Amino acid sequence: MADIQKVNGAHDEQAGETDALAVQASLREDELADAAADMRDSVASFTFDGDRDDVDHISGAPVERELVLGSEDPRDASLEERPLSEDVAWTGRIFNVNRLQVELPDGRHAVRDVVRHPGAVAIVALTDEGRICLVRQYRTALGRVTVEIPAGKLTPGEDPLEAASRELLEETGMTAGKIAFLTTIASSDGFCDELIHIYMATGLEFSKSSPDADEFINVDLVELSELVDAVLDGRIEDAKTVVGALLCDSISHRLNFSQEEE
């Protein structure tokens, strides 16, 4: 009898252990299911090109009209997103990445990751002989040397005009007799608020460069027409340099056209 009781006891212990393992397995399955659901929700928040079954809006029909700038068209109000919250997701040396929760025009919520940048300046520096000043610099993000117009970021509260003079001198050793504002561009407004203010510098004189401690630069003076040709051939990829070169070319053609009319 005692032996039978021992066997039954052992059997009960094994059954108990089996039940406990089954409970643990069930809990793990529940945790995995919850984790998978959280992941799907997260993906849904970030992905807007997937399942569109519950999305019933379409783009506005093409309209032939004069140019109307952003936020100047009454219809633009129906495109606006309303920020609900904003938190710093990552802090860097030059910029931060913030995560925003926004309400879309149709009432749905979405997540926007935005690079918060202090802004920058770029300088189209032209010699009296019609050559443009370019800097050669290794760009780690691209893994190669690029050819660009001089540029640099703004310090907080810095006047862009003063920053343009500073960056031109630091990177190229050039001082300008005259600096004029050309335009402002958004470098990548799909995810970044950086604005680059582009200036034209003339009356150049060489002084002494003073690049940042981590900047190693060579400076070229190139015929403007040669740079424009390289831009049009797709051999210049830096956005601010493309804009600066084409602006100079456009201004030159307009000036020539005006002189011919006179």
Strand content: 25-35%
Radius of gyration: 30 Å
Count of discrete alpha- or pi-helical segments spanning 4 or more residues = 4
Extended strand count: 10
Poorly predicted sequence stretches spanning 5 or more consecutive residues: none
Overall form: elongated
Oligomeric state of shown chains: single chain
Termini gap? 124 Å
- Proportion of residues in helical segments: 25-40%
- Given helix and strand content, the structural type is alpha+beta
Provide a concise account of the structure shown.
By secondary structure, this protein is α+β, with helices and mostly antiparallel strands. The protein contains 4 helices and 10 strands; from the N terminus they run H-E-E-E-E-E-E-E-H-E-E-E-H-H.
Task: Summarize this structure as a short list of keywords or feature phrases.
single chain; 262 residues; three-stranded antiparallel β-sheet; 10 strands; elongated
SSE diagram, text form:
Blueprint: H1 2-46, E1 82-91, E2 96-103, E3 109-116, E4 120-125, E5 131-139, E6 144-148, E7 151-153, H2 160-172, E8 174-186, E9 195-206, E10 217-223, H3 224-232, H4 239-261
Parallel strand pairs: 4-9
Antiparallel strand pairs: 1-2, 2-3, 4-7, 5-6, 5-10, 8-9
Helix pairs in contact: 3-4
